[in-house]
Design brief:
Elements (H helix, E strand, L loop, with lengths): L3 H5 L10 H29 L3 H12 L4 E3 H8 L3 H13 L3 E6 L2 E9 L1 H47 L18 H5 L3
Helix pairs in contact: 2-6, 3-6
Length: 187
């Protein structure tokens, strides 16, 4: 039987961050909030692409026949279907991606990276990869970057456990291999 004293019990004390954890969290969250904008600005300036558009094209370049279901591409790029649809519409206007109904299931839409899109990705990739190296890989070092990758996979796994969709652990669809463009794009 519950008493009014039980109802007022706030439960266990939260596991507050200590000073070192707080400093690490502030640095990490600052990086999470800053890095995408910096990467996006570089791609827009040098390649007239957004970071999200680049990730869409790189994801398609990894796929068999450079084609994915929009729902799969949404998970791969960590974007909602609405955001993905807007991005793909812009990529379509530029002739870099085409959408069409899936031949086996007309209710499903698939996206394909065109030859022009692959050429655009191959043109954008060297500058983008160099920028990623300068901002992330070089400061982290080879071992630190490998550790960052492992930590990222763990964090993404915890996100899945919390009910959030995430990128496949290996970043690829099963049964596919990265294209030469994707390799040069650092994927």
């Amino acid at each position: 039987m519950s008493t009014s004293a039980d109802a007022a019990d706030p439960g266990p004390e939260p596991r507050w961050l200590d000073a070192d954890e707080r400093q690490s969290w502030l640095a990490f969250s600052g990086m999470l909030l800053t890095l995408p904008g910096v990467l996006d600005a570089q791609l827009q300036r040098e390649a007239d692409l957004t970071l999200f558009g680049y990730l869409v094209m790189a994801g398609l370049s990894d796929a068999r026949d450079r084609t994915l279901r929009m729902s799969e591409l949404s998970v791969l790029t960590q974007g909602s279907l609405s955001r993905l649809s807007h991005a793909v519409a812009k990529l379509e206007r530029n002739g870099w991606v085409v959408r069409r109904p899936c031949p086996g299931n007309g209710r499903v839409t698939i996206a394909t990276l065109t030859d022009a899109g692959l050429a655009k990705l191959e043109d954008a990739a060297p500058g983008h990869v160099e920028f990623v190296r300068r901002l992330v890989l070089d400061p982290a070092g080879r071992e630190g970057f490998a550790h960052l990758g492992e930590l990222s996979r763990r964090i993404l796994g915890a996100s899945v456990d919390a009910g959030c969709p995430t990128v496949p652990a290996d970043g690829l669809r099963p049964g596919t291999a990265p294209s030469d463009a994707a390799r040069s794009a650092g994927r």
